[in-house]
Write a structure and sequence with these properties.
4 helices
């Protein structure tokens, strides 16, 4: 089940749907039921994906800001190491 949830949450559309329907899920499930347990597991995986993706977004934004900063203007980046 966990592997299937991870596969599903790799999709941006599924993650968006899960995030958009969060409030509704918390009002319809009864505590300590199979459905609530499933939703809780899915919520945890969704949060993991969102945390990783938001970290990547912050990192990308920082990289872009660094490239545009006056302190780094005019400097070229060193060439990437070749992989042989």
């Amino acid at each position: 089940m966990i592997s299937n949830l991870r596969y599903l949450f790799a999709s941006p559309k599924i993650r968006a749907f899960w995030g958009d329907t969060r409030d509704g899920r918390h009002t319809i499930y009864v505590d300590n039921t199979a459905e609530a347990t499933f939703a809780s597991a899915a919520d945890e995986i969704w949060r993991e994906y969102e945390a990783v993706l938001s970290w990547g977004h912050v990192r990308d934004k920082t990289s872009l800001e660094d490239e545009a900063s006056p302190a780094t203007a005019g400097r070229s980046r060193p060439p990437a190491e070749s992989r042989e």
